[in-house]
Amino acid sequence: MVRWFPQRYYSYMCSSGCETPRECLTGALRALASEDLKSSFGPAVMARTGALVTARNRLDAEVARTVREGELTQAAEHDGKATMASWLRGHHRLSKAEAGRLVRNGRTLERLPMLAAAASAGAVSAEVVSVLAPVVSEVNLARAEAQGVDMAAIDVLLTEVAVTASHADLRQAVGHYLARLDPDGTEPDPTEQRSLSFTTHTDGTVSFHGTLDAVGGEKFQAAVESIQQASRPAGDTRSRARRAGDALVQLCDNALASGALPILRGHKPQVLVTIDLEDLMDTSTGAGAARTGFGGIISAAKARWLACDGNVTRIVIGPEGQPLDFGQTKRLFPPHLRRAIEVRDRHCVFAGCDAPSYWCDVHHVIHWIDGGETCLDNGALLCERHHTKVHHGFRIERQPDGRWRTWRPDGTEILIGEPFLISA
Questions:
Q1: pLDDT tens column, 332-342
Q2: Is 317 left (phi over 0), alpha (psi -120 to 50) or beta?
Q3: Which of 408, 410, 382, 412 is nearest to 394 (CA)?
Q4: Has this prediction a pTM greater than 0.85?
Q5: How many CB atoms sit inside 10 A of residue 78's CB?
Q6: Nearest Cα to 67, choosing from 122, 13, 129, 24?
Q7: Same domain (yes/no): 92, 154
Q8: Over the chain, what is the mean pLDDT?
Q9: Where does the pLDDT of residue 151 fall: very low under 50, low under 70, confident under 90, or very high at 90 and above?
Q10: Do 216 and 340 share a domain, yes or no?
Q11: CA–CA gap between residue 48 and residue 94 (Å, rounded)
Q12: Residue 322 forms part of a structural domain
């Protein structure tokens, strides 16, 4: 017998004079938002967080139950919408993925009553319900019926795992059940299990969401992990998530620099940035001054950083925005000069970094916008992370003896392996 949540129901009367549960909920949320958290100590904060997570789980379950009722009664037609998913997208600005998840969760809770009870008690989250959704898809319910599977027993077993085990263990349990349900099924086409979508935000940042099959996911993780583990300089305080993000960008840099990618729109793929000449020459940050090829908005500072080592095409824009003149693409550091700099520097020259040359840009020590020459003496290898640092206040300088030195924005030098004396 499963005993992780109470099987009792209570009639509730709010003492604040609310006439409906929704009014009580609104009042409670307003009261919570007005509480002062600054004076709370650790245990109180943790207790409050736990209570809110449980309350959120219960509220998510109620939303899913209501959405399911709307689906069954075609309630969306009242507002001229064909489905609850489209109503959620249009009236509450939910993403397509989130609206679909709510609809699936409503169906799942209807078909798995023990899971519904656990969700209603706040013992499982909406994410957990989503993990169990494939169990009650039409195809898998038909397979279970054909094999005489007791779905009530499956409901109890999987709900117990959901309440007592880790999220990873739950996914494994669901995967094991589905595999046993169709042991002789045809091997799915991995390409049918892959998807990737991008969203560009107003500040130029890009969010992406995707799904990969097991083998594709393994390849992806192996490639990112290899760069993560190879680029861990001393004193690196980045979180694992940040390091993974940097590694993914480094993979793209490597692929773009290799020249082996397929031709895109008649040209080799490249990063495209459009910016007015005045903004490019201005030394200020210049927020929102440049636009990328895929529609992102970036600052003039980022545009100058991208222009430090790359292809620059001159396009003169007229007063009404019409292109007047097209110049030839100019490679700032030609291949033979880059090779010479690679031989000389061998790796990123920023103090304490040994990122290999093929991860690095060639940085103009004195920017070409400021009159710096494209020559051996004015070039330096910098990995993406430290190239960004140098364009945000850090400084590198090559000494007459060939050593590179690095200074922080406050003028102090970054010293690695400083010598120390042992007193007698």
A1: 677 778 888 88
A2: beta
A3: 408
A4: no
A5: 10
A6: 129
A7: yes
A8: 80
A9: very high
A10: no
A11: 27
A12: no
Res. 55 pLDDT band, cuts 50 70 90: very high
Supply 249's token pair. Answer: 């960008």
**Is 419 within the bounds of a domain?**
no
The predicted model gives 183-212 an average pLDDT of 76
Look at residue 419 and tell me whether its pLDDT is greater than 50: no
What is the rounded average pLDDT of the residues 35-54? 86
Query: For the chain, how many structural domains are there in total?
Result: 3
